[in-house]
Amino acid sequence: MSFNAADRPPMSGAAGGDLAVNQYDVYFSRQPMLDREGMLCGFELLPRVIDQRDDPEKPGRPGKALVSAFMARAVRGALTGHAAWLDVTRDFLFDDALLGLPPSRVMFELPPDIGSDPEVVSRLIQLHGRRYRFALDHVTEADESFAKLLPYVEAVKIDLNQIAPALLSKFASVLKAAGKILVAVGVESQADSDLAHELGFDRFQGYFFARPHKGARRASAPRQALLNLLQLLASEPTVAQLEGELKLNPVLVMHLMRLANSSSFGIGHKVTTLREAINATGTDRIARWTQLLLYADGRKVSLEDDPLLQLAATRARFMELAANQLSKARIAEQDAAFLAGVFSCVDAVFGGPLEATIDMLTLARPIRAAILNRDGVLGQLLSAAEALERADWTRLDEVCGQLAPLDAAAVAAIGLDAAEWAGMADRATEATGLERLDE
């Protein structure tokens, strides 16, 4: 994973010379989608389209602006190779600008109010011919519209909290028999996860994976080793002291060697000794790498497919980049912001009360206050990160009122840059996944 500083993110929406595009401000929230193994398998992109035209009564091209924004490099990077699930309106469905999106990269979500008239069905058939795929969103009942659209969709999304349990079970059974991909929305608790798994759902949306529960990634001996290493790093150790601590933990040595030999460092030759790896990587990067490894899944999985690690890494990088915009690149404040982000969901790793875990980490008072109470500028940045994750645009606007010059568009742009950074884990190394941290 590269820890090099990113360029300053754009402070506004889609750019370019096309007037039809520039008349709209378009930005996205990115929400994770997990498979039955709890690994990332896609992202829902929730767009916000703001009409900036002088005369909103005249016909516009919001669809073209949406496609232009979706095709931006930052969005492509933030998807980290995963599929995008994108909400569409009826107007956008019939806008030929939609054809500018590559079918292999997107699943279109049809809202409940899109209709099921012959025009809609005909359009779906036409787009099917171009290999576009569709999902029915927020299904709550088997009404006439549902029956008419079902043959043309590949997936069905069901909010677990918006449908009667008896009907949910029947829905799941019938739709699985019909070969549809079942997506459970609103998975926020252990009970939600257990129910959706039992009913055979294929995909899961919600932040259950970031909550403390019986499956929490609790502090095993290797995780305790990571904490010991973090404590040592906080004391400005010598290379010899670091080398001694790392030699006690072969798994950590393996990860450090892979990190040092990644192309992001541009050393020009293969690092072969632990001391050379320490010198090449630097204590700051080792500290960040160690903080993120606390979140790594116990199974052998790639870092970019691990939802909890990606959430923590994205938040941390978001906090750092956003603080840079506010503090005119004061390194200490950026470091504090990164720490507030990376440890903001650490209770999902260790279980138990968040306050007790934060105390164990002996974090500085402003970082502790930000995580526990959302106090101070760091707390406001954390609130902005959470609002963006939830696509809560009203809340994001409210928080940004205290974070000038950041506005919602700038926050969303920073979020995409942070997501891309988090998703670059192990891309340029020989690693195929994390070794089990519990062994």
TrEMBL record:
Q: Show the Gene3D superfamilies listed in the entry.
A: EAL domain, Hypothetical protein af1432
Q: Which Pfam family, just one, is annotated for this protein?
A: EAL
Query: What region holds the HDOD domain?
Result: 219-409
Q: Quick one: signal sequence residues?
A: none
Q: What is this protein called?
A: EAL domain-containing protein
Source organism (scientific name): Paraburkholderia dinghuensis
